[in-house]
Amino acid sequence: MPELPEVEIVKQSLNKIVKFKTISKVIVNNRNLRFKIPKNFEKSLKKKKITKIFRKSKYVIFQINFEQYLIMHLGMSGTIHMSDKGNKKNTNISFYHGRDLPEKHNHLIFFFDKFKVIYNDPRRFGFVKIMKSKDELIKYFSKLGPEPLGNKFNTNYLKQKFNKSIKNIKNSLLDQNLVSGIGNIYASEILFRSKINPLKKVENLTLSEIRKIISKTKFVLSHAINKGGSSIRDFKNVSGFKGNYQKEFMAYSRENYLCLNRGCESKIIKININNRATYYCKNCQK
Ligand SMILES: [Zn+2]
């Protein structure tokens, strides 16, 4: 599932490819994504220029002609591919899947002068939506919490939020109204590096633990972006590649492997919290 770092990489890749380019036409092969794509979707993007691309939480946002916005969410399995005219091989710019994409899942194709950009999504949990104005866009995202990499996500903010909460820290990190963009994989990584038990109630966290959560969140996410970023530098010449960050996981998907903390002889265990796999070391994370 694409998380914030992966979406950031997609955004950076798209910035290199489609910024200031004009969409010549759009083909929708399947309107039944998570939300049905309206009939006027193609027409409202045709011959329009992409003037800016940015990210909010796990959404990629395209500014269209300075007035409209196209928001894109990759859901569970969405990937973006680029294909040059005359070249049958696609380039996956979503960095962590192979380049083979079963064409029947190519739901959206954006045509530009010399190339096309394809949205592929086997499970169809992703979606696209057009926002007609900046106000509409701001309203759409108004309930989302601050960006984990931004200044608003700080110790005072969390301390205040945690005062009134009886949730455990794992669920809190996944709460998009508290902080937007942390997913299941990085929540385990952040708590492992903070040495905090995922089941610990947030009202019981000390100030120094909260500080640790803030700093490890920023570290883990920016490190993952850097790792992914380094593998996409020459993405135009690569046909499909894997991101490097999986190799750096210290807890996630490491059930029964030895804990990587020096001197610890325990094994990483896997539990379910809210039906989501959660990995941690009982010895190191208190
Ligand atoms: Zn340990």
Structure description:
The protein has 7 helices and 11 strands. The strands form 3 sheets. The protein has a 5-stranded antiparallel β-sheet with strand order 1-7-8-5-6. A 4-stranded antiparallel β-sheet has the order 2-3-4-9. Strands 10-11 form a two-stranded antiparallel ribbon. It has 2 domains: 4-140, N-terminal domain of MutM-like DNA repair proteins; 155-280, Helicase, Ruva Protein, domain 3. 34% of the residues are buried. Mean pLDDT is 89; it is low at 230-241. With 286 residues, it is an alpha+beta fold. Bound molecules: zinc ion. Residues 259, 261, 264, 266, 281, 283-284 line the site of zinc ion.
Question: What is the CATH homology-level superfamily of the largest domain?
Answer: MutM-like, N-terminal
Biggest β-sheet description: 5 strands, antiparallel
CATH architecture descriptor of the largest domain: Alpha-Beta Barrel
Radius of gyration: 20 Å
Whole-number total of structural domains:
2
Report the CATH topology name of the largest domain: N-terminal domain of MutM-like DNA repair proteins
Strand order of the largest sheet: 1-7-8-5-6
Strand content: 15-25%
The strand count comes to: 11
- Average predicted confidence as pLDDT: 89
Which structural class best describes the helix and strand composition? alpha+beta
Distance between the termini: 28 Å
What is the CATH level 1 assignment of the largest domain?
Alpha Beta
**Ligands, deduplicated:** zinc ion
